[in-house]
Amino acid sequence: MNDSFGARLRSAMDERGPLCVGIDPHASLLASWGLKDDIDGLETFTRTVVEALADTVAVFKPQSAFFERFGSRGIAVLEQAVADLRAAGGLVVMDAKRGDIGSTMAAYAETFLRPGSPLFSDALTVSPYLGYGSLKPAVDLARESGAGLFVLALTSNPEGAEVQRAVREDGRTIGATMLGHLAEENAGESPMGSFGAVVGATLGDLSSFELDINGPLLAPGIGAQGATAADLPAVFGPAVRNVVPNVSRGVLKEGPDAAALRGAAERFADEIRAAVAV
To answer: For 145, phi and psi rounded to 5 degrees?
Structure first.
């Protein structure tokens, strides 16, 4: 890949619309599609989503856990989905939230960020709560391979606040510290850097945080979790153009009808595009 993840992401969102569709084949969703919670149901669900949306949606975020629970056959379905999505021009953010130290972190990075790996993705979600420096193997390999990272910074789950809003001795919160590290990683990059943060769209006023990190902000919470496209400017302020809003159930509930899936994705993309226009 000649272009960085940040450059490819900016281009994809400008062309296809600023939308990330989560691929979350949990048991209740499979059931709502009339599918069994088994490998055949998983494969049918995933293939349907990929065939319906791969050539029109900018970004996809498969949740690795929902494939891992089926063992090696589930991983094989995920590998095929990643390959098919990328072949159709979609960007893949692997939602695996990996976080460890040393050689173990390096192995996670090799799994998802090394070109040629069966699970090579355009970007990976990572957890920095063993210390931001523990992510260095992933940061280094992402730079080398032209991939990106999304670091958990201000997540939408209520439990996250006890860590992310905790105040350090220097007076900064942990979440703000992570955003600061990412701003340093992205300094000088154009049109934006490749090292993003996960920031929940349901968190309300975040004006006390410096969200303009010159990198993407993956924003879960649109749709089923209660946030709307219209909320994005108030939450993200001047950084709203770099927001990558994630919608999962709001789109996936329309399946298994392919036309309904495409229609839902188009509606969300249009609503978000109108809301974040600058």
So the answer is: -95, -5
CA–CA separation, 41 vs 25, rounded Å?
A: 9
Active site residue 97: yes
- Angle of CA points 50, 116, 219, to nearest 5°: 50
Tokens standing for 87?
């072949």
Sign of CA dihedral 78, 80, 81, 86: positive
User: What phi and psi values does residue 200 have, to the nearest 5 degrees?
Assistant: -70, 135
Q: Which of 175, 188, 182 is nearest to 129 (CA)?
A: 175
More confident residue, 277 or 225: 277
Q: Nearest to residue 148, comparing CAs of 104, 213, 241, 83?
A: 213
Cis peptide before 256 (omega within 30 of 0): yes
DSSP 8-state symbol, 222: B
Mapped onto helix, strand or coil, the DSSP state of residue 4 is coil
User: Considering the entire predicted model, what is its pTM?
Assistant: 0.97
Catalytic residue among 36, 61, 97, 253: 97
| pLDDT over 60 at 59, yes or no | yes
Q: What are the chain's domains?
A: 5-276 (3.20.20.70)
The total of other beta-carbon atoms located within 10 Å of residue 51's CB is: 13
